Amino acid sequence: MTTFNDSDPRVADERETTEGKVFTVQGNDWDELLHDLSSTPAQERIIVNMGPQHPSTHGVLRLILELDGETVTEARCGIGYLHTGIEKNMEFRTWTQGVTFVTRMDYLSPFFNETAYCLGVEKLLGITDQIPERANVIRVMMMELNRISSHLVCLATGGMELGALTAMTFGFRERELVLDVFEMITGLRMNHAYIRPGGLAQDLPEGAEQKVRELLKILPGRLKDTADLLVDNTIWKGRTVGVGTLDLAGCMALGITGPILRSTGLPHDLRKSQPYCGYENYEFDVPVQTSADAYGRFLIRIAEMGESMKIIAQCLDRLKPGPVMIEDKKIAWPAQLAHGADGTGNSFEHIRQIMGTSMEALIHHFKLVTEGFKVPAGQAYSAVESPRGELGVHLVSDGGTRPYRVHFRDPSFTNLQATAAMCEGAQIADVVAAVASIDPVMGGVDR
């Protein structure tokens, strides 16, 4: 077992504990440690902590690795370092305010968090079929843009961790283009709270459609740079082919979804099997591979970005003028508000309208914003296909203006179970590639 020593970095101290002999090491003393270990009984082992501060653990993930030389004999995940209490906090906020919390869970795919939650609320309210067509089309467009940006981060960070620094440069370069679109439409690059129960916070601003069309012209060529760099690259394949393997039986036993599952050859995608937001009206394919390894998952994410661009193009063609919030004023959060001259708050025209219409209209607006609407008692489960797999939410209502219970099935949390199966028996260097192919986001794991 190894720990860290703040004294002399050149000396591997040792001491006896109830678990056996412990060597305390800190950089530059690996040779000395191996020399000391050579005189110890064969059953001695080395336990290395990778993370939670390690740059290749995708956030504050701790990996406890038991090593026999360079071979991983046991791998365990230590989570909980980023616990936010989001699910519990939502019990003290209105149904609409909950969107502001859920968008911060998996911070690389906020629109999927928001959509899954809103679909659940709308199911409890019984208004699923009343959501305006334009709102659904915009939801799909934003989610597919978000799928591209999320996969770009996965490829960029995964490339960086394996030494392909140019892949990181390309990935974040393209992601900036997508985030510029998000900022134009929602006002924020992340944590948007744009998708609301009943529709959207506001319609697309002027020029948004044109900006998305321009993005669709740029992205294919830019994404080709990453593909040309890594696909069939001998060094890249040497680090990813046959690494982090998990077959279909393993995926089914562990509840694994997303690119990991599709890399086994099973084309499972909720957009096809359980369509939502009108996905049944779009033409796209579900990319699969049969290698069940890190390289296959890489190829799937490359292909999925191309399919997402197809869907976005169809969304632009389907956009028709119309409302982006349901008509029921007992539920509909105001979605067509102009802003004041300073860019914040409601415009004078809107304030004059709700104050001049009737006292009842003013009271209703006040209660809707401060107290929120009531949701009939019951429970519902809704799920979307996020970049990492099935993102589901179980909502329970007691008939009030706040959720009684909210629990998310985050794919990062579930998929992390595969770490041991992917890493045990492999080399320690392959752990980095395996975890990168899982693409966990700790914001979704520690809710």
UniProtKB/TrEMBL annotation:
PROSITE patterns, A to Z: COMPLEX1_49K
Entry keyword set: NAD, Translocase, Transport
Molecular-function GO terms, alphabetical: NAD binding; oxidoreductase activity, acting on NAD(P)H; quinone binding
Cross-referenced InterPro entries: NADH_Q_OxRdtase_suD, NADH_UbQ_OxRdtase_49kDa_CS, NDH1_su_D/H, NiFe-Hase_large
Residues in NADH-quinone oxidoreductase subunit D domain copies: 162-447
NCBIfam families (UniProt xref): NuoD (TIGR01962), PRK06075.1 (NF004739)
Record family assignment: Belongs to the complex I 49 kDa subunit family.
Protein name: Unannotated protein
